[in-house]
User: What shape does this take?
Amino acid sequence: MRRHRNAMEQVNHALDYRPPYQWDAILAFLSARAIPGIESIESNTYGRAVALTGLDGKMRSGWIRVSHLSREHALNVEASASLQPVLPQVLARVRHLFDLDCDPVAVDEGLRVMNDLAPGLQVLGTRLPGCFDSFEMAVRAVLGQQITVSAARTLASRVVNQYGTPVQTGIAGLSHAFPAPERILSLDRDIESHLGPLGIIRTRARTILALARALAESEIDFGADAQPEQEIEKLLALPGIGPWTAQYIAMRAMAWPDAFLPTDYGVKKALTPRTPKQIVELANGWRPWRSYATINLWNSLH
Assistant: This one.
């Protein structure tokens, strides 16, 4: 990691990765799911409004921009000076979001067999999109149940506009951070009376409340030391969370490389005409990289 300050007191950090890195693919994935107000993708750069509580208990807010330094095999993270006290947290979250600790050669060796299904299905350097905020990602997963990516993005943007944390960035399109679990728990009256008018059905509103409570009370752990299989079992015990949602959360919030969604619409479409049972049997040959295999299958549809 290398860093320097520019004349505007905006700190730049270069976060290294092991090449190759399919930057355009991960940026396209994130762009399709970007929540207005929180994220923006322009000029081949990822931007985000940030609000984080530091070790001193104080909240800091500002913005980040992430771009690709292909010749240096690194991503450049430009952050507003206001985020200096929480920069270690910011950079750790960027590493997670962009899967910078991946060994692409190991993944390729494990998934090269996918090219027997279709030439070029496994692409060396494909990364697993993670997340910057685990609660945000869990809520996205719930909102995405049985609806399109675009529809889920619309619902998420309504939640942000209503309950997100305002952030002064001076950058068009970056105005809020996703609400913390505590913000959702602080709402008076029934949760459906708050989220229902936003178009979120009652069962999903209650699931979001249950997730907020579980995270706020540390009943569920999405941290780096978490055991994904154990956390999946905890997720499945919450109301309104089934295997698809739990696996998706494990894939992106916990960066679990071996999550798999055999009933996912995109997975089934990419592997038609196989049955879910046949898909599961096929995917067993992709362990322990089934999350990356899933990204390959989704990418093949575009």
About this structure: The longest helix spans residues 149-163. The chain has two domains: 2-101, 134-256.
